[in-house]
C-alpha cells in the first residue's frame, strides 16, 4: 500500500517541478527586453527552448544538454565545427551533428546578448584550434568542458565546477546577461 502512495507523491512532485521550471523560463523571456534588467539572462532548456533562432558564428560559445543533468560546452570555429573536450580528455573538432550525438539534447544553444546577437570571442578560435588532438586530464567537476571553454575564451585556466558558475563568469566577462538561444543550424542538419 505505501509504494503506490510514494509513486504518486513522486509523480506529483515531478509535475510541480516541471511547471515551476517552465514558469521560471517564461519569466526570463518576459524580462529580456525590459530596461535596467540586471538578471542573469536565460538558461538553456530543452523543456522550453528560447523562441529565438540565432545564426552560429565562429567564436561563439555553444552548449547542449547531456542526460537532462548537465550542459556540455564548446567553441564554434567555422560553419560546421565545434571544438570540445571529450570525456576521454581528448580535445577534438566535431560537426554540429556530432556535438549532439549520444547526448539527450536536441538543440544546440548559443550564448547571446539580450538582442539575440551571439557573443563572439575571436581569440577563442585560435586558442581552441591550437588544442585539437591534445589530451588533458578529465574530471567532471574540476577539469571539464567548462574549464577548457573558459580557457579558450579568456586565456585563464581555472576550475569551474558547474554550468551555473561558467554562466556567471561568462556574464561577468561579457559585462551583460547571457541568453542561451537556440542555434539556427545549417539546413542539412534540420532533421536533428
Low-confidence stretches: none
Backbone CA Rg? 17 Å
Structural class: alpha+beta
CATH superfamily placement of the largest domain: endopeptidase domain like (from Nostoc punctiforme)
Percentage of residues in DSSP E strands: 15-25%
Give the name of the CATH architecture of the largest domain: Alpha-Beta Complex
State the helix count: 5
What's the domain count? Answer: 2
Average pLDDT number: 85
Which percent bin holds the helix content?
25-40%
**Which assembly state applies to the chains in this document?**
single chain
| SSE pattern | HEEEEEEHEHHHE
**What about the largest sheet?**
8 strands, mixed
Rough outline: globular
How is this structure best described in words?
By secondary structure, the chain is an alpha+beta fold. It folds into two domains: 1-31; 40-189, endopeptidase fold (from Nostoc punctiforme) (Alpha-Beta Complex), CATH 3.90.1720. 35% of the residues lie in helices and 21% in strands. The chain contains five helices and eight strands, in the order αββββββαβαααβ. Strands 1, 2, 3, 4, 5, 6, 7 and 8 form an eight-stranded mixed sheet that branches. Helix 3 (122-131) crosses helix 4 (145-154).
Amino acid at each position: 500500500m505505501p509504494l503506490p502512495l510514494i509513486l504518486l507523491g513522486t509523480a506529483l512532485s515531478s509535475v510541480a517541478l516541471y511547471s515551476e521550471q517552465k514558469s521560471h523560463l517564461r519569466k526570463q523571456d518576459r524580462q529580456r527586453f525590459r530596461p535596467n534588467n540586471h538578471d542573469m539572462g536565460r538558461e538553456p532548456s530543452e523543456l522550453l527552448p528560447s523562441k529565438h533562432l540565432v545564426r552560429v558564428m565562429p567564436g561563439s560559445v555553444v552548449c547542449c544538454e547531456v542526460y537532462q543533468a548537465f550542459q556540455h560546452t564548446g567553441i564554434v570555429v567555422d560553419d560546421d565545427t565545434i571544438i570540445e573536450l571529450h570525456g576521454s580528455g581528448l580535445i577534438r573538432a566535431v560537426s554540429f551533428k556530432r556535438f549532439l550525438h549520444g547526448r539527450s539534447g536536441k538543440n544546440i544553444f548559443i550564448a547571446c546578448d539580450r538582442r539575440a546577437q551571439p557573443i563572439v570571442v575571436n581569440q577563442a578560435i585560435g586558442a581552441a584550434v591550437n588544442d585539437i588532438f591534445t589530451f588533458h586530464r578529465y574530471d567532471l567537476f574540476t577539469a571539464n568542458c567548462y574549464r577548457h571553454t573558459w580557457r579558450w575564451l579568456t586565456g585563464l585556466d581555472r576550475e569551474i565546477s558547474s554550468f551555473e558558475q561558467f554562466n556567471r563568469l561568462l556574464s561577468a566577462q561579457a559585462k551583460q546577461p547571457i541568453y542561451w538561444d537556440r542555434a539556427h543550424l545549417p539546413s542539412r542538419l534540420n532533421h536533428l
